[in-house]
Specification:
alpha+beta, Aminopeptidase, 32% helix, globular, Bact_Acetyltransf, GNAT family N-acetyltransferase, transferase
Length: 158
């Protein structure tokens, strides 16, 4: 590790993380997905959604660097519901660390939805062995944007 790199650790999220997870979620979507409609909910509403929906129904982990939560991932069953990073930590291995943690908890495989226009996320998942299962015209998501289902199957399962 060089002097400019910092260790990132992954730990289970808890309700005390809800506000910072909401900030990561909102910041990431605004910066990395400019094609999405403007966020209709404020930080307090997104925090409440993280507490009452995400943390209540998903196994959720946060990536912590220098004491700051810089990303999170949420898994419901074998569906990766969320993986978001602060924009300034992208391409530094943080997403891979979160994805590796999620995969450890999904030994039979893992699926996710991604917007078709989210080329960077699609490339990230492809590099990590995900393949396209299907595509959709947007009827199944609240943004009404074309998406696709990706699936990762462990080598010993395929």
């Amino acid at each position: 590790m060089t002097g400019t790199e910092t260790a990132t650790r992954i730990r289970p999220a808890n309700t005390a993380d809800a506000a910072v997870i909401a900030r990561v979620h909102m910041t990431s979507r605004a910066v990395t997905m400019p094609y999405l409609p403007p966020q209709g909910r404020d930080h307090a509403q997104v925090t409440r959604w993280i507490e009452e929906v995400v943390l209540a129904s998903c196994r959720t982990w946060v990536a912590v660097r220098d004491g700051e939560v810089v990303g999170y991932a949420a898994l419901e069953g074998d569906m990766l519901e969320h993986l978001y990073l602060l924009p300034d930590v992208r391409r530094q291995g943080v997403g891979t660390l979160l994805l590796d943690e999620v995969r450890r908890h999904s030994p039979e495989g893992l699926s996710l939805y991604v917007f078709q226009s989210n080329v960077e996320a699609r490339a990230f998942y492809e590099r990590h062995g995900f393949t396209v299962l299907d595509t959709d015209d947007g009827r199944r998501n609240m943004e009404r944007l074309p998406d696709m289902t990706l699936r990762w199957t462990p080598p010993d399962q395929g």
